[in-house]
Amino acid sequence: MGKKPFHTFEDLYRLVSDVLRRHGLSDDQGAIIAQAIVSGERDGCDAHGLYRTLSCVEAMQRGQVDGQAQPEVHDHAPGIVRVDAKRGFSLLAFERGLPMLEQKAHVQGIAVMMINHCYHFSALWFELEKLTERGLVGLAMNPSHSWVAPAGGTNPVFGTNPIAFGWPRPGSPPYIFDFASSAIARGEIELHRRRGERLPAGVAIDARGQATQDPVAAISGAMLTFGGHKGSALATMIELLAGPLIGDLTSAESLDFDQGAQVVPYHGELILALDPEVFLGPAKDAHWSRAEKLFDPVRGKPRPSGRGRIARTA
User: Fold this and answer.
1) Is the pTM of this model over 0.85?
2) 18-35 pLDDT, tens per residue?
3) What are phi and psi of 179, to 5 degrees?
């Protein structure tokens, strides 16, 4: 008889975590990464779902990621948590630093976590969900590898440089957006290549700087920012805030560090957490009720899709 098919996300989680552990990840690294991958699959984001298991396995096979790394959490300043990922994946570093970040945010109203020396492969909404579950407003960003040309340019300078935002909504799923400053996610280009599909127009150029819809030509050329100069400015901001400001690499430096190994990007991540209870005190509920009007479909206002997030990631 054939093997029993996987019917539930719990089955899928067991499969992914087992694969990751077989390829050298510790139990705690494998568990948190499997949670993120299954969350992506659950939410219909193909570029950050089950497909990302391959990225993790390839990174381990190329020998640069430390799958046994144990992050170190440092109380860096009254409002800052610093986590050294020790060349492991970013998600375990985030999980280890989250309790201190939450505590600082509840005391001061705002706190920052900077993750250093991490390999990053995943969407950012996973971190934002953890913050909104704790009643915190969150913002997260990171550079990647320099695959993206600035507005008006033809040479890659920026990473896909995602930014994500989370807003807790008592009694409803949180409002979360997570998208790249590039016009398309890097993983989407690879998925188009695997499926033999052309890219949308206006998302990439080839090695000669000409517009292309060929995913192979796009990989050897450059991706473009969304919104022209606006996306380019946003990408610059993310490079600065999640690179030099936290003492970590820019996207160009990450690609140089890779030295052709084609491992997932190596850099830092910046996460901000804001506690509305500290900002607003007893008036918090009244102001949160006002905020809910933005999500009222009867008034024709924007509202989250699916499970309460807009999942467009890098």
Assistant:
1) yes
2) 999 999 999 999 999 999
3) -145, 160
**Residue burial 99-124, b: 16+ Cβ < 10 Å; e: rest:** ebbbebbbeebebbbbbbbbbbbbbb
Q: Which of 235, 192, 196 is nearest to 204 (CA)?
A: 192
* CA within 13 Å, CB half, 152: 4
Sign of the C-alpha dihedral computed for residues 101, 105, 106 and 108 taken in this order: positive
CB-CB neighbours of 63 under 10 Å: 10
**pLDDT per position as a tens digit, 228-282:** 999 999 999 999 999 999 999 999 999 999 988 878 899 999 999 999 999 999 9
List the domains of the chain with CATH numbers. Answer: 69-182+225-311 (3.30.1370.60)
Q: How far is 191 from 5, CA to CA, in rounded Å?
A: 24
| Structure tokens belonging to residue 273 | 């957490």
